[in-house]
Design goal:
Blueprint (H helix, E strand, L loop, with lengths): L24 H4 L17 E10 L10 E9 L3 E5 L6 H8 L7 E6 L2 E2 L8 H6 L1 E5 L10 H10 L5 H14 L15 H13 L5 E5 L7 H16 L3 E5 L3 H7 L2 E6 L2 E6 L9
Parallel strand pairs: 3-8, 3-9, 6-7, 7-8
Antiparallel strand pairs: 1-2, 1-4, 4-5, 9-10
Helix pairs in contact: 4-5, 4-6, 5-6, 6-7
Bound molecules: adenosine-5'-triphosphate.
Membrane topology: Peripheral membrane protein
Family: Belongs to the ABC transporter superfamily.
Protein name: Cell division ATP-binding protein FtsE
Length: about 280
């Protein structure tokens, strides 16, 4: 069943998207407070809009990796993106971060049209999107503290901001005692917590995760999903691409299902729903 967000047309697969273009992306997005707030309700404005999006890779001209996808994800939602290997999940995420451009259709993040966005604006877009990957992507020769602080240094944050925000976020993910460890001195679950800390230290309003528990055992995976839920409760919109059936079935959040590049299901409190 498609859910209706307050004050908005349904999120049906073919809902027309007509957002106004805003020049200030940051102003258009809510900011993350690291203190746990009440469970936030989806707010009025869509954070992500796909409007008849098709993506065809040059290497596979006859087989769209995504075909005519239209949907909206609202501020404060927690959404699972599920589908078999090759169904288009990573392509979907790369379109949101503007690593890829669609072959046709439009994608809006906080009302900004990524299709027409100038290249110089892309780094500003990415400051608003925390990214978490299956393989953590930590810098091996840097400590936990340095891996997280680096994310703030590259966007020019002051030493004062770094000294306050990095310990705060490492406390949030439960790594306050591991600041000086290197990634190879941590478990897989701890490394993923560092990568989540790095993704949210700049308080992005949107967190996208591509198979965040793909390398972790079930118990560690539950800890990571609990953490993502806590981050979501602070108001951050969370999108998780996953194969983790148990997690999706237990958490009963919105599920968007892709099959061969087609949107086949968009369900509130959904289940994984594919045969393994
Ligand atoms: N750079 C590329 N060039 C050509 N085809 C690609 C490229 N990247 C992905 N594809 C194809 O696009 C389709 C979707 O791939 P995608 O990686 O988005 O799927 P996925 O659902 O994320 O898969 P997985 O769960 O295995 O990561 C597949 O058919 C894949 O072969």
């Amino acid at each position: 069943m498609n859910k209706l967000a307050p004050g908005h047309a349904g999120r049906g697969h073919h809902a027309p998207a007509q957002p106004a273009i805003r020049s200030d992306l940051s102003a258009a997005l809510p900011s993350l407070s690291l203190e746990d707030a009440q469970q936030s309700q989806p707010m009025g404005a869509p954070v992500i809009t796909f409007d008849h999006v098709t993506k065809v890779y040059q290497a596979q001209p006859n087989k769209p990796s995504l075909h005519d996808i239209s949907l909206q994800i609202y501020a404060g939602e927690f959404v699972f993106l599920v589908g078999h290997s090759g169904s288009g999940k990573s392509t979907f995420i790369k379109l949101i971060t503007r690593e890829l451009k669609p072959s046709s259709g439009h994608i809006y993040v906080a009302d900004e049209d990524l299709t027409t966005m100038r290249d110089w604006r892309v780094p500003y877009l990415r400051r608003n999107i925390g990214c978490v990957f299956q393989d953590f992507k930590l810098l091996p020769n840097k400590t936990v503290f340095e891996n997280v602080s680096f994310a703030l240094e590259v966007i020019g944050k002051s030493r004062h901001v770094i000294k306050t925000q990095v310990p705060e976020v490492l406390r949030l993910v439960g790594l306050q005692d591991k600041l000086n460890k290197r990634p190879d001195q941590l478990s897989g679950g701890e490394q993923q917590r560092v990568s989540i800390a790095r993704a949210i230290v700049n308080r992005p309003p949107l967190l996208v995760c591509d198979e965040p528990t793909g390398n972790l055992d079930p118990q560690t995976s539950r800890g990571i999903m609990d953490l993502l839920e806590r981050i979501n409760r602070t108001g951050t919109t969370v999108l998780v691409a996953t194969h983790d059936r148990e997690m999706v079935d237990n958490m009963r959040r919105r599920v968007i299902a892709l099959d061969n590049g087609q949107l086949t299901r968009d369900q509130d409190r959904g289940v994984y729903g594919f045969d393994v």
